[in-house]
Amino acid sequence: MEKKNIDWENLGFGYAQTDMRYVSNYKNGAWDEGTLTSDSNVVINECAGVLQYAQTCFEGLKAYTTEDGRIVCFRPDLNAERMEATAQRLEMPVFPKDRFVDAVVKTVEANEAYVPPYGSGATLYIRPYMFGSSSVIGVKPAEEYQFRIFCTPVGPYFKGGVKPLTIRVSDFDRAAPHGTGHIKAGLNYAMSLHAIVDAHDQGFDENMYLDAATRTRVEETGGANFLFVTKDGKVVTPKSESILPSITRRSLMTVAKDYLGLEVEEREVFFEEVKDFTECGLCGTAAVISPVGKINDHGREICFPSGMNEMGPVTKKLYETLTGIQMGRIEAPEGWIKVIK
Ligand SMILES: *Cc1c(COP(=O)(O)O)cnc(C)c1O
Question: Contact 289/276 with Cβ under 8 angstroms?
Fold first, then answer.
């Protein structure tokens, strides 16, 4: 297979159209058999449920080339399960888990020429999504839906080295108690755009959201979960019903416990304790872990000892072990690596 002539190392994180995408339509209570298509446009009615009442959700995962030249992706079964939970909360039909994984495989296979080579740091980002496609004017769930997967090659996240982030405590809320914070719905992002644009305008990389009810507990950022390290080397992650369950974070907690022999804790984390942690990182598919160097709480700064130039030692070990597992340099736990080719 001849790869596309792409400058992999210098790719950014943007959409670049590839050759093929997957589409399946839901109508009269059933999904059709699904197909690959070269058509990158979606044609829907002006009154489609997604356009009027934002009935849409998505997933994100990556395919990449391992050290021994296989093309794989990481735990797609968990993306399928999460999308199932999301669909149920949004009154959308579930796209079955085995079909989801199969569709990911088919989409990557059909775009093999866009899977970046091992060592480039680039990956093929895969975006499954679903939306209400039939017309809805009185508020109710749509009757017809489209499930699609496209993929796009993206560059190395830490291009030019790791740069720890500066984040601020947000005055906006991300998710209500008993709301939709725990599902991957587009609406959670629509309402966070103002907060992130404002954070960037003020010179911050990200928002730290606290729980909306009491503003005392740490939740997450707009698109990544927190990991903290205590002075005695324990790895702590916030527990809350309104946090999106990051697959990366869950995997890192397993790595911390089973590969690095660290103590791990998923529990409520009060903002007041944050100053006592020695390391802080953001977990998500895009970066795996981005170190946080500094948190600004309305002018009061919390600076982590790892500083603004590098990852802290525990964050670094976690990062290297999980990326080693993903790239096939370290043996993976059973079922974590889905071999595509
Ligand atoms: C997708 C997402 C994450 C990261 O999840 P991963 O499965 O690790 O990519 C974290 N927080 C939010 C709000 C998200 O939407």
Answer: no
Q: Of 184, 294, 317, 338, which is the active-site residue?
A: 184
pLDDT tens digits along 28-63:
999 999 999 999 999 999 999 999 999 999 999 999
Cβ neighbour number for residue 8 with a 10 Å cutoff: 20
Bridging pattern class, strands 300-303 and 288-297: antiparallel
Q: Would you call 184 a catalytic residue per the annotation? A: yes
Rg of the chain, C-alpha, whole Å: 20
- pLDDT band of residue 157 (cuts 50, 70, 90) is confident
Q: Three-class SS of residue 108?
A: helix
Global pTM value: 0.97
Task: Report the nearest-CA residue for atom 14 of ligand 1.
Answer: 223
Q: Which of 207, 218, 285 to mutate to test the pocket of ligand 1 (most atoms within 8 A of CB)?
A: 285
Please indicate whether residue 186, judged by its CB atom, sits closer than 6 Å to ligand 1. Answer: no
Which one-letter DSSP state was computed for residue 135?
B
